[in-house]
Amino acid sequence: MINEMEVGARLYELRTENRFSQSELAKEVGVVEKTISNYEKAKSSPTIATLRKISEVLKVDIRSILFGKDEQISVDDIIDTYENNDVANALNILAQIDALRNEGDMHLKRKFNCYMSDARIALERLEEDEILEVLQERLDNDLDFEGLNDAEFAEYIERILDAASYGQDLYSIDLDRLNSFATANNIKRATGSLRRSRRAKWKHHKDIIPAIRAKLRVLFLNGINPFEEKAPRVVVKTSTETGSDDE
Fold first, then answer.
1. Could you give the domains of the chain?
2. Per-residue pLDDT tens over the stretch 57-79
3. What pTM value is reported for the model?
């Protein structure tokens, strides 16, 4: 059994022994500094891929990080341990995307795309009940998966990835705002008539969000969130503008 507190303590010890700061190790491994801090504080656990990178950078056996120097468990058994906890693995990758977003490092497109790819792979390995568990953890929604087809199941995975990317569930955004975004970006609803398609609005989140998703992700990777609530502009009038006179 892997003890996260002990793993964090060993990672701290190995990192300091090798004279790496958290920032330096994070840069070598390809994560943000907060992620290394979270590992050492046992707030999250590294994926098997990240563990391999850490062990390579620190020039130690992966078993030294997880179990200590005297542990004789095979690397294959370590991988099996991680693969048998797919939900935790998926949640951990999503947490790394959260950390990247919260640190304001979303402009690092290669790193973000790497995390998103890892998250997608991890989510696609899950069974329906496991996806439901992730949804309830990430979106706090009471959802029923009974009778889902493959397309609907895939859309739930995209919904989880959207929430990780934007920090909010796109399905919680008002439909009129989504339609306004689609109109502003010349994204039209497909209809049988060209004239109708120009003015037709989407009536359901499940139809409009897949249509605007690609555009949204491009904008967000460039630091633009079109649905972010902006503080109202405050105009302070001078005494001349208000008509007051101190004389």
1. 4-83 (1.10.260.40), 98-171 (no CATH), 173-225 (no CATH)
2. 999 988 888 877 655 666 666 66
3. 0.57
